[in-house]
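Mods, move this if it's the wrong board.
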Amino acid sequence: MNKKQKRSSVSKSQERTAYVFISPFYLLFIAFSLIPIIFSFVLALSKWDGIGNFQYIGFENFSRMLQDMNFWRSIWNTLIIWVMSTVPQLVFALGLAYITNLKIIKHKSFYKIAYFLPYITSVVAVALIFSSLFGTDYGLINAFLKLIHLEPKGWMNDPMLVRVVLSLMVMWRFTGYNMVIYLAGLQKIPLDLYEASTIDGASTFQTFRHIIVPLMKPIIFFTVIMSTIGGLQIFTEPQVLLGTNSSPEGGGMTLVLYLYNQAFLKRNFGYGAALSWGLVVLIGFFSALNAIVINGRKKKELE
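Not the wrong board. C-alpha cells:
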C-alpha cells in the first residue's frame, strides 16, 4: 500500500470517527423531533381517540378548525395577551438593564439575581400569588379598592380583566429574563462611546436613543422573536390560574390551552394535531412579520 492509499484510509477512518461522535445528536433529533413532527402531521389527517385505530379523514380537521369559532376566539385571546405582555415587558426590561448598567448603581449582582428570580420561580407559586392578589371576593387588590371607596372588580369574571391579569403574570415572570439578556449586551458596548457622547454634550436620553438602541438592535431582534414565539404559546399561566374555569368567551382560553383541552381532555388527538399546525403557521407569520419590519427599518437607516 502506497502513501496516498494510507492517507486516504486514515482520512476515511477519521471521518467515520467524526460521524460516530456526532451521531448521538442526529439520532436524538430524529427520535424526539423529526419523527414526532411527521407523526403529528399524519395525526392531523386522521381521527383518533388515543386507543382505537386510526381513521384517515384527509383535511377534515383543518376544515373544521377554520370553521371553529372557539379556535378564532382562542387566537384572539392569545394575541391580546401577547401584545399586552410582550411590548411593556421588553420596554421595562431594556430600561431596567440600562439603569442597572449605570456606574452609580452598586451591587449589580444582587439586582440581576432579584430580577431573574421570578423566571425560575414555580408557576404554581406565581399563580397562587396572583390569585390571592386578584381574587374577586378576598383578593388584596379588591380589598384596597374598597379601602379607598372604589368598586371592586371581577378580575376572574370579566374577559378583558382576565387578559390583564394573565398579561401581568407573564410580564412579572419574563421581564427579568429579558433584562439579563439586555444587560449582557449593554456590557459589551465600548465605554469609549459613552465617554464620547458625554464630551459632545449628549444627554442620557440622547445617548440611550442614538448609541445604545442602534447597537442593541440584534439583541432586541432576538428578544422580540423569542418573546413572540413564547407569547403565542402561553399555556401554563391560564391553565394553572384559571383551571377548568377558562373558556374562549371568558378571555383566558389561549390557543395552546384550547389545543390541550381538545387533545387530552376530549381525546380528539387528530383535531388537536391540526390545531398545533395552525399554531405553527401563526408563529411563523408573526416571526416573519417582525423580521420584515426590523429589516425594513434597517434599510431606511442605511439609505
